[in-house]
Amino acid sequence: MDNRLPYYMTYPMPLLYDDDKNMRRDLDYMKSIYPKAAKLLLPYVEEECDRMEYDGSMMYDEYPDQLQLRLMCRRIYDQVAEEMENPGEWLLDLIQVMTYHELCQRRCEYRNCRKRFF
To answer: Which of 29, 42, 83, 87 suits a disulfide with 91, CB 3.0-4.6 Å?
Structure first.
């Protein structure tokens, strides 16, 4: 009996879509270990980004408008400030960092998804 394997079976190929799954799992894990203040803000940031996620959104522009980004962060800040007693300037800074990171992640996912299907 011939026990040789065909060439394509000798070197296992990674699954094509496994990288995205691993990246999403890593991102979800990192979000789960955020500090308490960031965990409180995360649903607001994700909700606002969900609202902005549509074809033709400024979110997917090559250079998103800084004024629109700041207004988006200010809307999140206003929602959170109603629930907190003494929000400071640090809260707005944290919201901006988290929002820009979330936007960057979504832009990368959008680009990768578009490349696959077109």
So the answer is: 87
- Please provide the size of the chain in residues: 118
Confidence at 84, pLDDT banded by 50, 70, 90:
confident
What are φ and ψ of residue 23, in 5° steps? -65, -45
Q: Average of pLDDT values for 78-93?
A: 90
CB 58 within 8 A of CB 72: no
CA distance 112 to 106: 10
> Which among 88, 111, 104, 92 has a CA at the least distance from the CA of 49?
104
More confident residue, 17 or 37: 37
- Confidence (pLDDT) at 23: 83
* Token pair in block for residue 38: 């960031």
Alpha carbons 49 and 53: distance in angstroms, whole number: 6
